[in-house]
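Subject: Mevalonate kinase

B.,
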Amino acid sequence: MKGPLFYSKILLFGEYGIIKDSKGLSIPYNFYNGALKKDENPSESAIKSNQSLKRFVDYLENIDEKLVTFDFDILKEDVNKGMYFDSSIPQGYGVGSSGALVAAIYDKYAQDKITVLENLTREKLLKLKAIFSEMESFFHGKSSGLDPLNSYLSIPILINSKDNIEATGIPAQQNGKGAVFLLDSGIIGETAPMVSIFMENMKKEGFRKMLKTQFIKHTDACVEDFLTGNIKSLFKNTKQLSKVVLNHFKPMIPQQFHELWKKGIDTNEYYLKLCGSGGGGYILGFTEDIEKAKQSLADYKLEVVYNF
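Prediction pasted inline below.
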């Protein structure tokens, strides 16, 4: 048995901001994927995944039935037969490993599920997001539900605000020098501690003001620029966003990347930003000249995800 593939995602813009109603833009990233699977001779990682699935099933049984119901008889039978999530998506890297798993379980076992082939009205998207938020909270303590939504639908999603999301198209990739890339920090990040630092900071008035007047302002501008293909303005706003993150989100940036982050802003060779909640995993980079950025970041593993 091997189920359909569910892909990783990249939240290009909106990390932390979407908690406070900034815009956001999330795109599928087909380089990594995962599927539900059963094997005759499971590996050690398959056994570990299966044990985690058992705990997840216990958690799902307590979700409000008005929100979503599952075929627990078949789900439990499959899990007891050793089903696991076979995934190439790195965990703790901010590219949606738990989101893909949530999408796979919903797709196979949810009753009265909203399918990808339906006319996806805003109501349906919000309902899916609410279901996925509840399901994914098992992994992170608090989830927006966006990662599984992206993985489930496999299309770019534009977040206008908490209650206003839509499927969107993004400009076709060009063969230019500009690029969005992933930089491997080599460290596994954990979402829950990062989110709690953020929530703690939100108690301070100065931080809340900065979030509204700087962080959200530049995030919203970046989303607009990206969708309209206004590249010049996009890099200007990404630079500002990179500065704000370096000044106000330092705990989310691994210590050894503080200098590298600043170097990008000072030289304009690249601009770094958080990919997901930070603390490790991938760091997202934007550059107007990918060859220059590669030279400048020669000591690091770089993956291009989009070309301008």
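Residues 205-228 form the longest helix (24 residues).

T.
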